[in-house]
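Journal club prep, notes for RB
We'll compare a predicted complex against what the paper describes. Inputs for the magnesium ion case:
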Amino acid sequence: MSTIRPPATIGIIGGGQLGKMLSQAAKRLGYRTIILDPAAACPAAGVCDEHLVARFDDPIALAAMGSAADVITYEFENVASAPLLQLAKETAVYPDPRILHTLCHRTREKTALRKLGVKTADFIPIDDPSQLAGAVDQLGLPAILKVSEGGYDGKGQQLLSCKSDLASVSLAAHHTLEAYISFSKEISVICARNIEGEISSFPVTENIHRNYILYMSIAPARLPEETAQRAVEIAEQVVEGLAGVGAFGIEMFLQPDGEILVNEIAPRVHNSGHYTIEACHLSQFEQHIRAICGLPPGDNRLHRPAVMVNILGEGKRPAARLAGIPDLMRIPEVNLHLYGKEEVRPGRKMGHLTALADSLPLALERAGAAHRLLRWEDD
Ligand SMILES: Nc1ncnc2c1ncn2[C@@H]1O[C@H](COP(=O)(O)OP(=O)(O)OP(=O)(O)O)[C@@H](O)[C@H]1O
Ligand SMILES: [Mg+2]
């Protein structure tokens, strides 16, 4: 397959913050972008050449994207794979929608990982509420019950600590019961593979979650070199094994005994890779665009220690402004990214900040100080 050269058109399904940053990276390289997103004011709306305002599975909009775009990608995994499989008959769609079909369902995803020889938490599919009690007996407690499809930021997850928790469980959809992992760290690797099969990974990131939502990513992860190397090897084994094209976020649990389990795989750029914009020669967004256009991966080494903190919404406000920005801007080497989402909702990812420094302790200090300055005020 030949290289897709600028000014070719890249279609991006989803116009949230990831779609926005992908579009910005594509446009910097001289590509045209078309976004499909039902929200007229979505974050990517202002940074694309064309915006199709329609549902993600709208057949007319998808066909329009198919005829206008040279290659199509997506910014999130909760997009239906069936219409994308159809679309892929005419226009290249990366990652392959068959991979999306596997990864958007937790039982299918973990089964595929195990087939690739990768370790995961033990799991049992729950297709019928009557299976839960037996599955809990088999797996033991604590365990986490996760909706098999459509969850993100911990939505659709229920922690089962003791037998009495089973009484309050809601099981309207298919679920996957997972053994609870007492990890020592959560880590991730952004790994990209291009059309030609060239593979490259960014350094391992250490991730801290609060209420199941990513709060902070620290790069490089504070790990022995050998553990970091193993994490990269596992990530590359997964992406190679799937024959994926594009950037993938591989989330892992590091156990106290040094064993690494894969938690989940995002067939897309990933929140824990935002630090690459400032801290690496090349961002995960450009790496993804290069991969799907058949261009070589570049130099993705980290040139400064970096700490990224997500800026989440607080309280439900139809309109709000962030206070503290000028003070934040006085802190050296801190960059603020606001996604331009109109409505602030509790836990909604409204933006992020990245702090760089000569040393990781100083980057952590700067990120913490910057984040503490910010608060939402009613407009
Ligand atoms: N089996 C587990 N044992 C312990 N903690 C877990 C387990 N599964 C998930 N968690 C915790 O919950 C967080 C979110 O879980 P997971 O990544 O599976 O869900 P998600 O809703 O798909 O999140 P996202 O898509 O935002 O990464 C994990 O990063 C981890 O902190
Ligand atoms: Mg996750």
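Talking point for the session: The first helix runs from residue 17 to 28.
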